[in-house]
Amino acid sequence: MTYEHLDSDLVNELLDDGRASLRSLAEELDVSVTTVSNHLSDLEEEGVIEGYTPKVDYDAVGYDVTAVMQLKAEGNALPEITETLKDHRQMISVYEVTGDYDVIAIGKFRDTDDMNDQIKTLITDPDINQSNTSIVLNAVSENEQFELDTE
């Protein structure tokens, strides 16, 4: 096998089965276990692969309210606001964005009362000038990853 696309192929195999053994990856990619191990270590060191975690169905464990918050912030307070949101355990994504708002944060909550209480606490920061919260009615696609090109 050519090693030209081995890293991409390895990532794609792990996207398909994150619990695959080194041996099964080596067999699938037609290379040695040592080669897979070395490339996997390199990908981890380079930050291409950032850990191995299960995909959790939050609805199934009682977090069936998803809220999307849009925030306008004082310019110099943006790093502090995003750090606070990032550190909140139920915020699953926090983005600094262009457009009408400065931050978009997505959180998972047990119910609308839980969401309301936590969002009110989060947006009491005086450096947040404006907020808009939307509740997701239907998650058509969520937490999806895509295979890397190998061509």
UniProtKB/TrEMBL annotation:
Keyword Lyase: no
Record-linked Pfam families: AsnC_trans_reg, HTH_24
GO molecular function: sequence-specific DNA binding
Signal peptide residues on this chain, from the entry's feature table: none
InterPro entries: ArsR-like_HTH, AsnC-type_HTH_dom, Dimeric_a/b-barrel, HTH_trans_regulator_Lrp, Tscrpt_reg_AsnC-like, Tscrpt_reg_AsnC/Lrp_C, WH-like_DNA-bd_sf, WH_DNA-bd_sf
Swiss-Prot/TrEMBL GO biological process terms: response to amino acid
Domain HTH asnC-type: 3-64
Cellular component, GO annotation: cytosol
Domain of life: Archaea
Keywords carried by this UniProt record: DNA-binding, Transcription, Transcription regulation
Name by which UniProt lists this protein: Lrp/AsnC family transcriptional regulator
Organism, scientific name: Natrinema salsiterrestre
Lineage of the organism: Archaea, Methanobacteriati, Methanobacteriota, Stenosarchaea group, Halobacteria
